[in-house]
């Protein structure tokens, strides 16, 4: 039924959508594991058991491990994309399907798989050639998806990093970059973690730490702020806690407008943005002491010398980035907009909270482009992949030899998953046996003979058989041997 429900293309063949995903984990303190899975996006049920492991290896999550273990799997994926796959339906007819392959992974796995630099590099984006210098330039209306396998092949041999545009290796799979879908799960965790950290910083600046902890306790999220010698630290929240904070946290219960409270830091003079070495050189130019290790010391000395035009500009002219008064109502509105954005990305087309792709154009540069291609990103979520990681870790600790006595954990884990898949395909389900209590011999309400009674009865029967042996034959040694 699910094969016949696949969409039919113009060439008369059906289209099967397959998502390739991968992730690494620390199985133990000394053992790391890398997992790659395939998911059939057209399956009705979507959970961790529907993530089919195609590669599992022990080792670090790095490029060398991918090249050593993924080559055969990737070659099969290439053939699958090129030739498609043939199914046999209920009527024993062959159904030919083209395979549409997409990929989704977290930023670390994605960077090593595609051969691009990490997120902290100058060319940080795995889709376009945006740099850190223009990351905050919202005057650019759009950044198109321009990276490709052909560009990587052309630029990989360039001598400098700026000429390579962020490429360090060739992608392991010749897949169009518009088929590499952003991971909405880790995007939400990262952005929401930043928002919570910023709100906590505002609460600390306004000396409202106790109010924030009280508000977190009201919504049922464990959260605490500790003051150390030179800084404040606070609790890290997991995905479920972040979901609850996004849905229930009331910012007005612990924040107030900075203008009404008389707070809000004024912009610092440009001299504060100079390096320590530049400040020392400036002190030597104005013939004041350059000894010390603190910026404040050098700036205080420079404030007491006659000022020329350059020094006057450094000391008095404010930075071009001015700090606006904080209005809590504006923050609440932005918080609600992000909540709508987050829930809409988790919806399929046609559901109640689903929004058209135009609604995200001003907020992100690439999400709206993938929404135009695929309609919804909920089907590409890595939540089931993370759950699969947890399930395999459980198999390691409960159902494997843990690598001891020359046992292979990855093989045992794959064998276990193959058995589970066989049971599901053939409709075999495990039913635990019902518990039958064993009665104590002194119990007067015995329903039937206990196990000990049965053993005693068998012993009596065996003794009766031995008693009927021909002892009168005089072969005492033989009879003693039989009794023994």
Average pLDDT figure: 79
**N-end to C-end Cα span:** 67 Å
Return residue spans where pLDDT drops below 50 for at least 5 consecutive residues.
Answer: 260-266, 356-362, 471-484
Largest sheet: 5 strands, mixed
Structural class call reads alpha+beta
Query: What amount of the residues lies in strands?
Result: 5-15%
String of helices and strands? EEEHHEEHHHHHEEHHHHHHHHHHH
- Strand arrangement in the largest pleated sheet: 3-2-1-5-4
Morphology? extended
For the secondary structure, the number of strands is 7
Using only C-alpha atoms, the radius of gyration works out to 34 Å
Give the count of helical stretches. Answer: 18
Helix content: 40-55%
If you had to describe this structure to a student in words, what would you say it looks like?
It is a single chain. It is built from 18 helices and seven strands. Residues 260-266, 356-362 and 471-484 have low confidence and may be disordered. The longest helix has 22 residues, at 184-205. The chain has helices spanning 63-69, 71-83, 107-114, 149-155, 161-164, 184-205, 209-218, 239-248, 258-261, 276-285, 295-303, 309-316, 328-345, 367-374, 383-398, 409-425, 451-467, 476-483; strands spanning 14-26, 32-40, 52-58, 85-88, 94-105, 225-227, 232-234. With 484 residues, it is an alpha+beta fold. Helix 6 crosses helix 8 (239-248).
């Amino acid at each position: 039924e699910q094969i016949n429900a696949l969409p039919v293309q113009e060439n008369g063949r059906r289209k099967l959508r397959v998502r390739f995903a991968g992730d690494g984990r620390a199985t133990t303190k000394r053992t790391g594991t890398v997992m790659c899975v395939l998911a059939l996006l057209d399956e009705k049920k979507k959970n961790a058991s529907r993530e089919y492991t195609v590669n599992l290896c022990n080792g670090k999550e790095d490029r060398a491990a991918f090249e050593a273990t993924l080559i055969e799997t990737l070659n099969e994926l290439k053939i699958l994309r090129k030739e498609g796959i043939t199914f046999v339906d209920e009527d024993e007819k062959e159904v030919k399907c083209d395979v549409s392959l997409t990929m989704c992974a977290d930023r670390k796995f994605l960077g090593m798989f595609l051969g691009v630099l990490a997120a902290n590099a100058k060319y940080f984006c795995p889709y376009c050639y945006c740099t850190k210098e223009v990351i905050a330039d919202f005057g650019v209306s759009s950044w198109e998806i321009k990276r490709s396998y052909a560009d990587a092949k052309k630029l990989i041999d360039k001598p400098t990093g700026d000429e390579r545009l962020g490429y360090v290796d060739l992608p392991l799979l010749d897949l169009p970059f518009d088929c590499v879908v952003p991971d909405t799960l880790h995007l939400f965790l990262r952005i929401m973690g930043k928002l919570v950290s910023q709100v906590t910083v505002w609460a600390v600046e306004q000396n409202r730490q106790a109010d924030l902890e009280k508000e977190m306790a009201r919504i049922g999220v464990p959260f605490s702020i500790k003051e150390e010698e030179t800084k404040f630290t606070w609790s890290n929240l997991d995905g479920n806690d972040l979901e609850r904070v996004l849905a229930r946290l009331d910012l007005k219960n612990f924040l107030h407008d900075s203008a009404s409270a008389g707070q809000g830091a004024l912009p610092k003079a440009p001299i504060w943005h100079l390096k320590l070495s530049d400040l020392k050189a400036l002190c030597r130019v104005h013939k004041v002491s350059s000894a010390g290790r603190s910026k404040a010391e050098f700036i205080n000395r420079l404030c007491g010398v006659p000022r020329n035009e350059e020094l006057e500009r450094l000391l008095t002219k404010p930075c071009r980035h001015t700090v606006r008064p904080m209005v809590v109502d504006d923050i609440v509105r932005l918080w609600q907009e992000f909540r709508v954005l987050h829930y809409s990305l988790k919806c399929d087309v046609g559901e109640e909270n689903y929004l058209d792709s135009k609604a995200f154009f001003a907020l992100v540069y690439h999400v709206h482009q993938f929404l135009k291609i695929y309609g919804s990103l909920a089907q590409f979520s890595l939540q089931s992949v993370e759950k699969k990681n947890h399930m395999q870790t459980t198999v390691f600790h409960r159902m494997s030899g843990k690598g001891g006595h020359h046992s292979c954990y990855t093989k045992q884990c794959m064998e276990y998953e193959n058995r589970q898949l066989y049971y599901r395909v053939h409709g075999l389900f495990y039913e635990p046996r019902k518990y039958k209590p064993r009665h104590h011999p002194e119990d007067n309400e015995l329903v039937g003979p206990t196990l000990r009674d049965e053993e005693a009865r068998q012993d009596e029967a065996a003794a009766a058989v031995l008693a009927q042996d021909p002892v009168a034959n005089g072969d005492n040694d033989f009879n003693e041997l039989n009794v023994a």
